[in-house]
TrEMBL record:
Species annotation: Brevundimonas aurantiaca
Domain HTH cro/C1-type: 20-74
Gene3D superfamilies to which the protein is assigned, alphabetical: lambda repressor-like DNA-binding domains
GO-annotated molecular function: DNA binding
SMART domains: HTH_XRE
Lineage of origin: Bacteria, Pseudomonadati, Pseudomonadota, Alphaproteobacteria, Caulobacterales
Alphabetic keyword roster: DNA-binding
Keyword Coiled coil appears in the UniProt entry: no
PANTHER family attached to this UniProt entry: DNA-BIDING PHAGE PROTEIN, TRACRIPTIONAL REGULATORY PROTEIN-RELATED-RELATED
Superkingdom in the source lineage: Bacteria
One Pfam assignment: HTH_3
PROSITE patterns: HTH_CROC1
InterPro entries, per the entry: Cro/C1-type_HTH (IPR001387), Lambda_DNA-bd_dom_sf (IPR010982)
The name this protein goes by in its record: Transcriptional regulator with XRE-family HTH domain
Amino acid sequence: MAREKLEEPHPVDIHVGRRVQEKRLGLGLTQSALARALGVSFQQVQKYEKGTNRVSASKLFEMADFMKVEIPYFFSGFRAAQAGVGEEEAPAFDHEPRMTKHSVEIARLAPHLPLRNQKLILDMIREMLGDAAEKPS
């Protein structure tokens, strides 16, 4: 019988995992390639990226070295909500949607388009999202 998981992953572990995934995809690496470089299974890399398994300090150091980034890269953008004195407990950290290999490629290719085409594509994406699209002020 499978063991029941009692705890949700910590928001920091989820954030670090997403940053690992974003960087891996940005470098064009597969989970298997990263796993080989770290000496772990690709399943372990999957668990790191989902935040279900914490990345140890030594593995984080190896990842940073392999991906040619500083360790703080994996934590950048994380802001944990904290209640102030006399306030109710703050809401849980709201994570950005996961980057996919397609969204990373779109972000990589877009700057090579003329500005007019970038705007057309942006308008098309907003149209596809409808009310869910956030327009800048």
